[in-house]
Design brief:
about 260 residues; mainly alpha; 3-stranded parallel beta sheet; two-stranded antiparallel sheet; 9 helices; disordered C terminus
Length: about 260
């Protein structure tokens, strides 16, 4: 359950729904390799704020009678100009309480201080309050916690996509590894090898910032003014519990479908 973080934005894969893969798919793939009976659904949709996530995803998720539910929500709310943060966090805790009451294992995440721009540095204060409450909720309800905020590797800009808001493929791979470690599940995902970054000149940094402002920040701000969302027109990638499609089989499955159409 969640937003773009769980949908997989930034980890592009044209073979899959919404053309993304993401850490959640990667975790499901590893679980399925060790237990072929694994079933997986992903209800997350980019741009969703906490209340729509609860309204649209909670009941369908619980109706599947899952034994493991990942729940990340509220990140888009923290970016809003006006925010009742105590109410947001109360709503978050109520949703976790509802999931936990079913007996499902719950997986929560802290938020990361995404390196967007010095102009948005005040958001780190909101994130600190959010994270403190998430840690409390995880302890209160016995949930597993992926303390994303503590992952030093995400200080490297190569872990992020060009929009600076979503993890790149490298970030999603590393997140999948950390999730599996928190779950205590076997996996074959190696730690990313990141050679030292080449130093950038002041001009390169400024040019990169200007490009980001024009290409990513301005359209995002425009959507906010219009009341639009990046998720408008998108639906859940895997809305039902189904066997996990392993990436090594995707080509074979696509070829089989093409043959059926030709027949």
């Amino acid at each position: 359950m969640g937003d773009s973080f769980t949908e997989g934005l930034g980890d592009r894969d044209l073979r899959l729904p919404n053309n993304v893969r993401g850490w959640a798919d990667r975790v499901a793939e590893e679980l399925a390799r060790h237990d072929p009976a694994t079933r997986y659904a992903n209800l997350a949709i980019r741009g969703r704020r906490l209340d729509p996530i609860i309204q649209e995803q909670l009941e369908p998720a619980l109706a599947m009678e899952p034994n493991l539910v990942s729940f990340y929500a509220g990140g888009n709310d923290l970016l809003m100009t006006r925010l009742d943060l105590p109410r947001l966090l109360d709503r978050f805790e109520s949703a976790v309480a509802r999931i936990s009451a079913t007996g499902a294992r719950v997986l929560l995440f802290t938020g990361y201080n995404v390196p967007l721009s010095p102009l948005l540095e005040p958001l780190t204060f909101r994130n600190a309050i959010y994270n403190r409450r998430i840690r409390h909720v995880a302890k209160e309800y016995g949930a597993e916690l992926v303390d994303y905020w503590c992952f030093e590797k995400f200080q490297d800009r190569r872990m992020w996509s060009s929009d600076r808001l979503h993890m790149a493929t490298l970030g999603h791979v590393y997140m999948a590894k950390k999730v599996l470690e928190v779950l205590g599940a076997p996996h074959s995902i190696p730690s990313p090898h990141l050679p030292p970054l080449a130093a950038r000149t002041a001009r390169e940094i400024v040019n990169d910032d200007v490009t980001w402002l024009r290409r990513d920040f301005t359209p995002w701000l425009g959507r906010r003014f219009r009341g639009a969302s990046s998720g408008d027109g998108f639906s859940a990638r895997w809305p039902e519990l189904l066997p996990v499609v392993l990436p090594e089989l995707l080509g074979a499955n696509r070829a089989a479908r093409r043959e059926e159409q030709l027949a």
